[in-house]
């Protein structure tokens, strides 16, 4: 039986006695809700930093990952960024209701989608192609050929992620007016792809360019920049950025 897509998976439940804090990790194209954040050592030992490392740094936080169908090829879903974004927000709203995170507030309003926006304090990006990636053009062509063979259309995500695509520009236009409401940190990849010989997402695309955004180069390729093992020094600036983002823009440092 196939696993359901569009789910929030709780990796670390909230702890009583701590201020309520939800952290939601969302993987990228062809990613996996756990594997995208899991490092594997030479001895075969795995470390899923969201579950194995982050709880010690941010005690009390509820940590979740969002699972959705982001396959570039053979995806069973014809939907793209916007549809999955709505599903994520609704799933988060339902989790918040189930765990009574608003128990201390008054009863003037119900915990709904609007409140998710109001309660969000910050966003941390890892190699996110805000302006797309030239590699998506080639990937669209290749997967288009494969999709024709297997009888399924190319992923909507690929179409959106092409550099300066209409869909991507629309998403950026929608987000920029509200970006000022959130603390934002963006990590961009340092090392080129071993096969392609260049960066998957250039710094110019991975950085939004808003005045209050924290930016930092992260060691690793596009796929390894978000995988940290124990004693990995790269993890330190990551958890600190998440902690600052959780405080909101006013208390976040700016660069």
UniProtKB/TrEMBL annotation:
Cellular location(s): Endoplasmic reticulum; Membrane; Mitochondrion
SUPFAM superfamilies, per database record: alpha/beta-Hydrolases (SSF53474)
PANTHER family membership: PROTEIN SERAC1 (PTHR48182:SF2)
Keyword Membrane (UniProt): yes
S-adenosyl-L-methionine listed as a keyword: no
Classification via InterPro entries: AB_hydrolase_fold, SERAC1
Protein keywords: Endoplasmic reticulum, Membrane, Mitochondrion
Predominant subcellular localization, coarse grouping: endoplasmic reticulum
Annotated organism of origin: Diplogelasinospora grovesii
GO cellular component, one term: membrane
Record-given protein name: Uncharacterized protein
């Amino acid at each position: 039986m196939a696993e359901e897509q569009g789910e929030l998976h709780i990796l670390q439940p909230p702890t009583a006695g701590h201020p309520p804090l939800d952290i939601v990790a969302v993987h990228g194209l062809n990613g996996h809700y756990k594997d995208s954040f899991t490092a594997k050592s030479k001895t075969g030992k795995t470390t899923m930093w969201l579950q194995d490392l982050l709880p010690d740094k941010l005690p009390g936080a509820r940590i979740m990952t969002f699972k959705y169908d982001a396959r570039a090829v053979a995806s069973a879903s014809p939907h793209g960024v916007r549809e999955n974004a709505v599903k994520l927000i609704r799933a988060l709203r339902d989790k918040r209701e189930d765990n009574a995170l608003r128990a201390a507030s008054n009863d003037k309003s119900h915990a709904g989608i609007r409140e998710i926006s109001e309660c969000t304090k910050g966003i941390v990006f890892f190699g996110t192609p805000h302006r797309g990636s030239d590699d998506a053009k080639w990937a669209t062509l290749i997967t288009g050929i494969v999709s024709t063979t297997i009888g399924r259309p190319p992923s909507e995500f690929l179409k959106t992620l092409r550099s300066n695509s209409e869909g991507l520009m629309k998403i950026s236009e929608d987000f920029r007016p509200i970006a000022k409401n959130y603390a934002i940190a963006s990590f961009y990849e340092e090392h080129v792809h071993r096969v392609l010989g260049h960066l998957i997402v250039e710094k110019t695309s991975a950085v939004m360019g808003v005045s209050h955004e924290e930016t930092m180069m992260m060691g690793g390729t596009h796929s390894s920049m978000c995988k940290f093992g124990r004693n990995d020094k790269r993890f330190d600036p990551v958890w600190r950025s998440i902690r600052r983002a959780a405080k909101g823009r006013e208390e976040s440092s700016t660069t």
